Amino acid sequence: MNSAAFLYAFLSAILMGTIGVFSKHTGLSAEIITFFRLILGSAFMLLFLVAVGKIRLARVWPSWPVIVNGGFLAGFIIFYVQAMNYTSMANAIMLIYLAPLAASITAHFFLGERLNKAALGLICIALFGFAMMMEFRIDITQGSDELIGIGLGVLALTCYAGFILINRIIDPGIHVYTRTFWQLFVGGCVMIPLVIFSLDEVNIGQSGWLLAIGFFPGFLAILFAIIALSRLPVAVFGTIAYSEPVAVVIFGWTMFHETLSPMQMAGCMFIIASGIAKTVLENRVTHQNQNASITT
Known about the structure:
By secondary structure, the protein is mostly helical.
């Protein structure tokens, strides 16, 4: 574990948050944006491999967990978008951001990544800060639509948690570049049936924005997330992942003049503080372990 891994996790969260900025500028449907985000992301990954002289890594069989994770990558976005058709955006987002906590608890019991009280507390603080930024309310008077929306949100949560967990158990011998290319490519292919009859919505004037979507929240964000997950425990990555909604709120505030209430600002501070605290604690544990090994 090293400082670079923390930086990759943080940058991934910030870059993930840029998808909202680009979406507002294109005006395209979420399915089309997701398709181009993943398929162009895989194309940029190929160009990167050519540039660094490692194109052979794209021809390596990535293993079934990587293929499955490509489906999870597309799945959590698809289910999230569909959930918003039946329940509020706040409800859908809140359910998705239970995924880092769910993944951390699963890793505690099944991956041997022990979740101590401090780690669990910091994740809960980050989640509490996120809750302060959103208005989570289940309205049962909406009947079956509300329940369908919550069910789809839970599926999105499951896919996101699965994406995090599977990236932790992939064979270390499979290069992170191979993992990134195939997860992006498979995710893009999964989206094809959902967009094949609506691609005529795209015009040449939107090509620049689509390339930006493929590069920033696609190629760079997923690459950095996969690199971080190959080095960081789930609890650490999960805590830092809550930087994404903070970035979304700040982008909306600075670029689109959206209002930021005192409660939202307090929520941002909770999330930022928990991420910093988790990073400091993890670095301290790492240094203690290194000193102990030197002493012995």
